[in-house]
Fold ABC transporter substrate-binding protein.
Amino acid sequence: MAAELSRRQWLALAAGAGSALSLPAGWAQSAQRPVQRLITVGGAVTEVVYALGAQSLLVATDTTSLYPEAANRTPKVGYLRQLSAEGLLSLRPDAIVGAAEAGPAIVLEQVRAAGVRVELIAADHSFAEVLRKVQTVGRITGREGQAQTLATQLKAQWAQVQSTVAQAQRKPKALFILSHSGAPLVAGRGTAAHALLSLAGAQNVVQQFEGYRPLTAEAMAAAAPDVLVNSTQGIEALGGVDAFWRRPELALTPAFARKALVMMEASQLLGFGPRLPEAVSQLHSQMLKATA
């Protein structure tokens, strides 16, 4: 049986070096069988598994899978962008489902070559992305009915949140700072943070570039954000709220005068998972309150 292949055989097969090895009978059709052993890479994907009640299928998750609390107690396969074929295949998964940024690509190709079903979910930083995650996980785990129910609930929540955002009289000028490690960066166009600010009814003051970049004190002053947004993990990495406000470049912003800072847990804030309606609602109300 496939489960009896040694680790060395797995890796030889995955790398294409073991041409003399033959797959166990029926292994090529394993992708069509109900999944019994699942690995998820990407916190939002893992959240969906728990939301659908399919967590008994999980044999491991990645290190970004922090919610719900039970996900912290699952075996970990490392960071989703730095996976290894040996680590994944040693867990004998039937399927690996992940966020679009999971990789490296060569590792996932090796895993596919070993007969494991691998599905990555396209990201466009939208509510539609959330629904794709729900649909994909529901299909792979055999929880299509539960997935449909969850999608219906999320659509209703989303409609309510979007109605509330649309009725707001102000669009705060916001700046998202990413500071989980290294020097703080600010979020430009094309990022999850940019999309989140827009969905929550704010104007991202950084429009001149895409991605995340350092922002000089002069540019910070010119951007003139009314409110700053960061994750709770990012603030902790900078030494806490007091240390954050001691950064000299922040003193040049309108946000500094009123200490207008909104913090939320990173996986909820940027995960684009089933908590997105709640995240947008909280961010919207907190930004309005901080800039009142």
Observations:
- The longest helix spans residues 144-166.
- The first strand starts at residue 38 and ends at 41.
